[in-house]
């Protein structure tokens, strides 16, 4: 009797898991053959007027490809088209946001053409935020200011480190010795 109840519970749990997985696959699948594109990558975002941006395909274009990135700017000064091409395992390029561009959100459209088959892909869309006071995309000069390891050369820092290691080793030795005596 108990075995029969256990078997029923196992069958019911299996059916619930498989049924849930089946429902999830129907709920998430879109129209047949329709793939949702990855978002394009825009760095930095937001960017200050006059800044430099990099735009990448996000893995949407077949490698190697070339193409263009266009910006919908409305009636104000425009952001020039960026030509993209193959980089290391991705498609991308860099461009300059003019200093006289009005801060706001700009629709970005990336289209590419495969180099080998001349097959057009896209457009893939994103949004660029131009914001006064944001990063201007300038690369930093020099290394990160995270310290130079000076604590290793000062007598106090080095002595403290050695004392901690020796104290930990001594504690391990004493605990180990006590455990062998009690057995």
What does this structure look like?
Strand 6 and strand 7 form a beta hairpin. The protein has two helices and seven strands. The chain is elongated and about 85 Å long. The chain starts with a helix and ends with a helix. Strands 1-2-5-4-3-6-7 form a seven-stranded antiparallel β-sheet, with no helix packed on it. It has a domain at 42-130: Immunoglobulin-like (Sandwich). By secondary structure, the chain is of the alpha+beta class.
Strand order of the largest sheet: 1-2-5-4-3-6-7
Query: What class do helices, strands and sheet pairing give?
Result: alpha+beta
**What is the fold named in CATH at topology level of the domain at 42-130?**
Immunoglobulin-like
Low-confidence sequence ranges = 9-33
Query: Which shape, going by the Cα principal axes?
Result: elongated
Q: Count all strands and give the number.
A: 7
In DSSP terms, counting alpha (H) and pi (I) runs of 4 or more, how many helices? Answer: 2
In the CATH hierarchy, what is the superfamily of the domain at 42-130? Macroglobulin (MG2) domain
H and E order: HEEEEEEEH
Portion of residues within helices: 25-40%
Largest sheet: 7 strands, antiparallel
Query: What is the terminal-to-terminal distance?
Result: 47 Å
The CATH architecture classification of the domain at 42-130 is Sandwich
Q: Averaged pLDDT, please?
A: 75
Assigned CATH class of the domain at 42-130? Mainly Beta
Residue fraction in strands: 25-35%
User: Mind telling me the C-alpha Rg?
Assistant: 30 Å
